[in-house]
Amino acid sequence: MNRENLLPQNDIHRRIIHLDMDAFYASVETKRHPEYRKMALIVGQDPRKNNGHGVVATCNYEARKYGVHSAMAGIQAVRLVPKEKLVFVKPDFATYRAVSAKIHSFMHEITDQVESVALDEAYLDVTHNKVGQESTVQLALDLQKKIRREVGLNSSFGVSYNKFLAKMGSEYAKPFGRTVILPSEAKRFLGMQKIEKFPGIGPKTQEELHKMGVYTGADLQKVDVLVLLKKFKKMGYFLAQHARGIDLRPVITDSEVNRKSIGIERTYEPAIYSRDEALSKMRNYCNYLETKLKKRNFRATTVVLKLRDNDFVTVTKRRKLHHPSDDQLDFYDVAKDLFDSTNGFLEKGIRLLGVTATDFEKENYQPINLFDY
Ligand code: TTP
Ligand code: MG
Ligand code: MG
């Protein structure tokens, strides 16, 4: 068996931008207080005025030179930075939210396929965009320029064919970074990265990987998929994909979050004539659906299969699950049964294939899941 078959097929046809503001809160504060421009500015309570309490929310790049970083105890920052260079500013979330809203409005001028990850960061799927710009890089540059012009702040972006690579890209050349990772360059780019830079690899996994002699993406690329699966279970599955530049997670728009069903469909040209090929696509879809549902803490009770043949004959078939689920295997079992209960599609050729999970039941507790990232 070719072990690469364990992994989903790569999709290199999307155009994704990840944009992240540089030292976001700190930059907003520097703009408001230009007199602090040359200082090491920390956003957070000043521990010297607060009985030693306080945490660094973020700091400017001047402070980072001294080793200060987000989530560090404020008191430690006081030890690291010379007194005359250090300034603390209390966070002002109302302003950060307002600036964030403005930045988002610029993004929505380009596309509504915007997924906010935090106040200062979002993914944009610009495969189809409102401005009809062919060049993704130009779109990203224009957005970066507009943010700088209109709100006076710097950002960094990554451009690639999936979220994982776009995010790696925006981190890569911070601050004021502009990184483009083409499909042909992905493997080499990832090979160069330390595994600490891979989003989703926590300190424990890093340690385990180091024990296996894995320090870089190139090392990770050499580890057999089965070894990763056995050792890290589901996380290993994602590690193997990421090392190869595979990430099928869609951009989930903020409005979609409230939608009542989640589905994915694709058209095929040439059409699909093989059952195995159709089932393999469906397996990828179900994997997608699981990720999307888990992210929102939803479980579906119904699966819908959609097929269209070369004569544009379309059917949708739906079936209830035995129990509410967010498990791709449950979706796949039902989708496969539904598929096998149709007639004539493979002979005619399938030009559209889709699977939807619907009739949600929201879990009222949030299980801690290491694989949600
Ligand atoms: P980040 O984008 O992680 O950091 P940043 O924008 O300050 O710096 P960078 O140039 O490296 O992107 O986080 C965005 C904002 O979220 C940050 O300005 C402050 C806030 N934040 C916290 O409050 N606590 C944290 O632990 C982190 C990481 C961020
Ligand atoms: Mg940032
Ligand atoms: Mg961020």
UniProtKB/TrEMBL annotation:
Q: What is its main location?
A: cytoplasm
Entry GO MF terms:
damaged DNA binding; DNA-directed DNA polymerase activity; magnesium ion binding
Q: Name one Pfam family in it.
A: IMS_C
Task: Give the coiled coil ranges.
Answer: none
Q: What is its EC number?
A: 2.7.7.7
Which reactions is this enzyme annotated as catalysing?
DNA(n) + a 2'-deoxyribonucleoside 5'-triphosphate = DNA(n+1) + diphosphate
Q: Which PROSITE patterns match?
A: UMUC
Keyword DNA damage included in the entry's annotation: yes
| SUPFAM superfamilies reported for this sequence | DNA/RNA polymerases (SSF56672), Lesion bypass DNA polymerase (Y-family), little finger domain (SSF100879)
* List of residues binding Mg(2+): 20, 120
Query: Which residues make up the annotated site Substrate discrimination?
Result: 25
Which key words are in the record? Cytoplasm, DNA damage, DNA repair, DNA replication, DNA-binding, DNA-directed DNA polymerase, Magnesium, Metal-binding, Mutator protein, Nucleotidyltransferase, Transferase
NCBIfam families tied to this protein: PRK02406.1
Cited function: Poorly processive, error-prone DNA polymerase involved in untargeted mutagenesis. Copies undamaged DNA at stalled replication forks, which arise in vivo from mismatched or misaligned primer ends. These misaligned primers can be extended by PolIV. Exhibits no 3'-5' exonuclease (proofreading) activity. May be involved in translesional synthesis, in conjunction with the beta clamp from PolIII.
Full protein name: DNA polymerase IV
